[in-house]
Design brief:
Distance between the termini: 22 Å
Number of strands: 6
Strand order of the largest sheet: 1-3-2
Strand content: 5-15%
Largest sheet: 3 strands, antiparallel
Shape: globular
Mean pLDDT: 88
Number of helices: 8
Length: 171
């Protein structure tokens, strides 16, 4: 079983708090921006999505983290990567999303740690401990969920709920 201490050297990016938002919200948001000629005011997008601005912020953060949007002076615009994403079919979207998710430093470090292990596995508990060592428990739990949910959605990671282990899906 993988020990927590062996993951301590993952790096400083493990203390970054990832947005508390699911994949489907980000995809829906990107489609709304695309329906508005690839650019819209943040306030209008919140209204279109029936969200308070505070509820839209994590969606903006995630879309920006993935390099799908750019926000300037309250205006959201799709980046070329974001435009390519919304204009592609489901299979191509999954590949593009996978590429963007693997560029997130925190995800990259978790993947690198898993790659060094013979069995390519890590317990959810150890991942949570790793995050808790650098941030409040609430944020650590959120980051753990983000890594598992986004990793599973993009088929980078698998999760065995019986053993509570994440594992690297063969590349």
């Amino acid at each position: 079983m993988q020990g927590f201490k062996e993951y301590k050297a993952l790096g400083d990016d493990m203390n970054k708090i990832l947005p508390r938002v699911g994949v489907s919200k980000v995809i829906g948001f990107l489609e709304v921006v695309h329906d508005n000629n690839d650019s819209a005011e943040t306030i209008q997008l919140a209204a279109d999505l029936d969200l308070e601005i505070d509820d839209l912020l994590p969606v903006l953060d995630a879309a920006e983290l993935l390099d799908f949007i750019e926000v300037k002076s309250g205006r959201v615009s799709l980046t070329p990567t974001g435009k390519k994403f919304v204009e592609n079919n489901l299979l191509e979207r999954r590949g593009l999303l996978r590429d963007q998710v693997t560029k997130i430093d925190t995800i990259k470090q978790v993947l690198d740690a898993l790659k060094t292990k013979k069995n390519k596995k890590m317990s959810k508990k150890n991942l949570l401990k790793l995050f808790k060592s650098t941030m409040p428990a609430k944020d650590a739990e959120s980051n753990t969920r983000f890594v598992i949910d986004w990793g599973r959605h993009t088929e980078i990671l698998g999760y065995n709920s019986e053993n509570e282990e994440i594992y690297l899906i063969s590349e």
